[in-house]
Design goal:
about 300 residues, alpha/beta, Aminopeptidase, 8-stranded mixed β-sheet, two-stranded antiparallel sheet, 10 strands, globular, Peptidase_M14
């Protein structure tokens, strides 16, 4: 793996190195135009609520969710999250597309909560981390130092709902190897091997409760949009054992992943590959929408 230009190999970063890293980040797209402006029209029966704001710039980075105007206590509760890693574009845009195009179809059958962009600073700067050099998707725990994670946790807890399903929308990109894993190794003073970036869509299930039927239903729906990632030469995907076609598993709670923030029975993290020669931004967004719909339809059919 390449040597990262910040820090000393084998030595974890201190405040100086983190400040040096932050100084190199810049805004490359706008949260206002690409996210907030697209949430100007919400389907009937739902409303847009602000559940917090990032302390780096509270005016620039309000944290938004789409929720039912009235929760029906007799219906199951479903959670969709996107943009925990801000650089994973289709997670955000797919969540927005689902809100605009399909959310109303589920209004009478379940209570759907959608948080389309958990990390708006990361979205604007195309980053995996937040300005504190923290990965929000490893920070979902009590008194989390990552405000993105802490505020989402507080919001979900405030709803006082038992969620049946949670789908978290992500991407795996070539920059995972070229930038983000080298940065992680440098920050922590460790070594991280490069992994083979899978060419295609895959899922990360909750290894403590895989629910293979649920995962397969999502894979089958997404297959109509884009190709499913094959195993690598070692029979794995990103170094993890395959439990079903296009499906691996992580212990989401022990890793403090967003997918572990509820006790939902049905949990999955999508992974779209936008750098595939067979992919386009539209295909990636459609794959995320298909994953959400496939998951919802499966659970509602149960």
């Amino acid at each position: 793996m390449q040597e990262y230009p910040i820090g000393t190999p084998g030595k974890p970063w201190g405040d100086e190195e983190k400040a040096q890293w932050l100084a190199q980040q810049s805004v490359k797209r706008t949260y206002q135009q690409e996210v907030l402006d697209k949430l100007d029209t919400i389907p009937d029966g739902f409303k847009l609520v602000q559940y917090g704001a990032l302390p780096y710039d509270a005016t620039r980075y309000p944290l938004m969710a789409v929720v039912p105007e009235n929760f029906n206590a007799s219906l199951p509760n479903m959670l969709v999250t996107g943009g925990v890693h801000g650089y994973e574009t289709s997670g955000v845009q797919g969540a927005i597309a689902f809100i605009r195009e399909h959310l109303s179809e589920y209004a009478e059958r379940c209570n759907v909560v959608v948080c389309p962009c958990i990390s708006p600073w990361g979205y604007e700067t195309i980053n995996r981390w937040d300005p504190l050099a923290l990965d929000p998707n490893r920070s979902f725990y009590k008194d989390s130092p990552a405000p993105e994670s802490a505020q989402l946790l507080a919001f979900v807890e405030s709803l006082e709902l038992a969620f049946t399903m949670h789908i978290d929308l992500h991407e795996t990109t070539d920059t995972d190897n070229s930038e983000f894993r080298p940065a992680l190794a440098a920050r922590d003073g460790t070594e991280h091997d490069e992994w083979e970036i899978p060419d295609g869509f895959y899922l990360v299930s909750n290894s403590k409760n895989t629910q293979l039927g649920f995962q397969q239903a999502i894979i089958d729906r997404v297959r109509e949009i884009t190709h499913i990632a094959p195993a690598d030469e070692n029979g794995k995907i990103i170094g993890a054992d395959i439990v079903s076609e296009g499906v691996i598993g992580y212990d989401k709670k022990s890793l403090y992943l967003c997918g572990g923030l509820t006790d939902a029975e049905y949990v999955s993290t999508t992974e779209v590959y936008p750098d595939s020669p067979n992919a386009t931004p539209e295909i990636c967004n459609e794959a995320q929408v298909a994953a959400v719909r496939g998951g919802l339809d499966y659970v509602l059919a149960k």
